């Protein structure tokens, strides 16, 4: 295909020497463009990592966070680069806006690369800045922490307190990311679990929870909810019954998002497959894989 030839030519042309001619924004844009088309040229990516590590102080927060996000999408790990740049970022974190922080944590999560100093700095920085984050930003940060299995109860509690006021700003994927991550970390808050209420505008009465509605129309969110419930060992809720009914409708299931594909492949992802809720003779709801 023609675009493959072009990408090969570009990657061959951008040698380490030529990379010095690129501005920091151009380096970030180049990496992001490769990530969007999932073009993983290890030689060029290694050169970019060495270049950025040597010039990190000249990169703006948006450039550094974009690189983390892009390398995460490309599943490209260069531990010396990430360790060095994380050491640098943790002292500049107050200059990062909410999107920069969420992109950074999300990228680290996708790569399963944990950095104690930076993640501790993120926890401290976010606690007083939650209002600055979009629904997607909150979802991506919590999802990143979930992938890293980073236990941060104080931050999770702050997010659990804050999130119910932001449901109108969140997409189904944002909510699913938060629920899955909190479930993976064993953190329970019923306000998050139940989701926002869905109202019938004509009669102005509550009809069903947002989660109950979502699992009926968007099956790719199902595993996130089940993973959460399985970790919380919640029983006897109407949501469980609706999920039980829904699970049989989607016994053949494929993840449709990048996040879902990564979740499917994750070593820790016991929920994917699809997980179904079934009822024993004693009336207990149990989790198992759909066949």
Automatic annotation (TrEMBL):
A family per Pfam: RESC6
Stored InterPro entries: FAST_kinase (IPR050870), RESC6_dom (IPR058917)
Highest taxon above the source species: Eukaryota
Coiled-coil region(s): none
GO cellular component, one term: mitochondrial matrix
Gene Ontology biological process terms in this record: mitochondrial RNA processing; regulation of mitochondrial mRNA stability
GO MF entry, a single one: RNA binding
UniProt domain RNA-editing substrate-binding complex 6 protein: residue ranges: 14-193
Transmembrane segments: none
Name of the protein this chain belongs to: RNA-editing substrate-binding complex 6 protein domain-containing protein
Organism: Cladocopium goreaui
